[in-house]
TrEMBL record:
<dbReference type="Pfam" id="PF00848">
    <property type="entry name" value="Ring_hydroxyl_A"/>
</dbReference>
<keyword id="KW-0479">Metal-binding</keyword>
<dbReference type="InterPro" id="IPR015879">
    <property type="entry name" value="Ring_hydroxy_dOase_asu_C_dom"/>
</dbReference>
<dbReference type="GO" id="GO:0051537">
    <property type="term" value="F:2 iron, 2 sulfur cluster binding"/>
</dbReference>
<dbReference type="InterPro" id="IPR036922">
    <property type="entry name" value="Rieske_2Fe-2S_sf"/>
</dbReference>
<dbReference type="GO" id="GO:0005506">
    <property type="term" value="F:iron ion binding"/>
</dbReference>
<keyword id="KW-0411">Iron-sulfur</keyword>
<keyword id="KW-0560">Oxidoreductase</keyword>
<dbReference type="InterPro" id="IPR001663">
    <property type="entry name" value="Rng_hydr_dOase-A"/>
</dbReference>
<keyword id="KW-0408">Iron</keyword>
<keyword id="KW-0001">2Fe-2S</keyword>
<protein>
    <submittedName>
        <fullName>(2Fe-2S)-binding protein</fullName>
    </submittedName>
</protein>
<dbReference type="InterPro" id="IPR017941">
    <property type="entry name" value="Rieske_2Fe-2S"/>
</dbReference>
<dbReference type="Pfam" id="PF00355">
    <property type="entry name" value="Rieske"/>
</dbReference>
<dbReference type="GO" id="GO:0016705">
    <property type="term" value="F:oxidoreductase activity, acting on paired donors, with incorporation or reduction of molecular oxygen"/>
</dbReference>
<dbReference type="GO" id="GO:0004497">
    <property type="term" value="F:monooxygenase activity"/>
</dbReference>
<feature type="domain" description="Rieske">
    <location>
        <begin position="49"/>
        <end position="158"/>
    </location>
</feature>
């Protein structure tokens, strides 16, 4: 991956982004506002490993879901063997989409709505109307194009290019961090969808720092000191760090109290902190003592991004007769909306021809990790 033509951004500005921390600048303005850069990202960054959803989105054999569109269109299917597979969302007859982006279905096979070509759940061609008597027709040549997919702790990652690094390298260093929370065993009980008028990278950069927290997040700052914690130095494609909570708090909520139960097996450190992780490029994972929250980003344009936020809780919390997830959902919906207002304002500001890459504050080392990761991709290296 990332061996194609470098991104259409000024080389001098990229060099400034890659300078040592304390001397570097943000990404070039073009990275956020130029449609040509966005198209490059779709062909390169989003052609490699990226998250396309959660395994629980596909409930039972025959469950199907389409994500992305056009060159990035993917069809997710749970087979009779309970395995989830990913296919290019392209019929092998005339290229019609099997499902439209965001659509779901549940049936014993995969059926193209154009000419009724049908496929088994493993992608093999089952029936091509009109070709039954064609001696030269070899159905084995016309199965759906399968893509690399990994189900990792319940998160589904796809590599449409087929040429990105081994998945183990993509998540290097992450097993010991995410594993104790067992997200694959948690249940998603709430989802919020947001469509933002901002570039996807602005959202990640905002997520990677709490330099802004004392200004726009009074509720969060009351529970988790903005200057607490530190960022991690991870060997793979993930970046992030942790922040601590005040002694009186059990979790991140408006009161600091938990309405659920702690995830079993967590260490004392994990019970007193929140881990904020970026699964490059589009998955944000927040690990709390009693729930796991994710933000799944789908870039829609250079200045538009769809974000689905999901909250997952342990079964023991759901078994409580008075369980109400709003203590977590309401807190983060408020915090999200505060962030979204800021991110959209940043996007409008970057649209000005007078915008220039700014310096990074000493507390923005997490932003530096992300910016340099993107800048290296732009130059054609990892």
């Amino acid at each position: 991956m990332f061996k194609q033509t470098p991104a259409p951004v000024p080389a001098d500005d990229l060099a400034a982004s890659l300078a040592p921390f304390g001397q570097s600048r943000m990404l070039p303005r073009e990275a956020y506002v130029d449609p040509a850069v966005f198209e490059w990202e779709k062909r390169n960054i989003f052609a490699g490993w990226h998250c396309v959803g959660h395994a629980s989105d596909l409930d039972g054999a025959g469950a199907q879901k389409a994500v992305g569109a056009g060159a990035n269109g993917i069809l997710l299917v749970r087979g009779e063997d309970n395995q989830v597979r990913a296919f290019a969302n392209v019929c092998r007859h005339r290229g019609h989409e099997m499902l439209t982006c965001g659509a779901t279905a549940k049936r014993r096979g995969i059926v193209c709505p154009y000419h009724s070509w049908s496929y088994k759940l493993n992608g093999e061609l089952r029936k091509a109307p009109g070709f039954d008597a064609a001696d030269a027709f070899d159905s084995g040549q016309f199965g759906l194009a399968e893509l690399r997919l990994v189900d990792w702790h319940g998160y589904l990652f796809v590599d449409p290019s087929g040429s990105d690094v081994d998945f183990d390298l993509h998540v290097a260093g992450m097993e010991d961090i995410i594993g104790p929370y067992r997200p694959e065993d948690l249940t998603v009980v709430a989802r919020h969808s947001y469509e933002l008028e901002t570039n996807w990278k602005v959202i990640v950069e905002n997520y990677q720092e709490c330099y802004h927290c004392s200004t726009i997040h009074p509720e969060l700052s009351k529970i988790s000191p903005p200057t607490s914690g530190e960022n991690l130095d991870l060997p793979g494609d993930w970046i992030g760090g942790w922040m601590s909570m005040i002694d009186e708090a059990e979790t991140m909520s408006l009161s600091g109290r938990s309405g659920g139960v702690a995830i079993k097996g967590l260490s004392e450190q994990e019970l007193r902190t929140v881990m904020y992780l970026v699964g490059f490029p589009n998955l944000l994972v927040s690990l709390h003592p009693d729930y796991v929250m994710t933000h799944l980003m789908t870039p829609l344009g250079v200045d538009r991004t769809h974000v689905e936020c999901a909250w997952a809780f342990p079964k023991e919390a759901l078994d409580k007769p008075d369980f109400d997830p709003s203590y977590a959902v309401d807190f983060w919906d408020l915090t999200n909306r505060q962030d979204w207002t800021a991110c959209e304002s940043v996007q409008r500001g970057l649209s000005s021809p007078h915008a220039r890459p700014g310096p990074l504050a000493p507390d923005e080392d997490g932003v530096y990790q992300f910016v340099t990761r993107v800048a290296r991709a732009y130059t054609g290296s990892r």
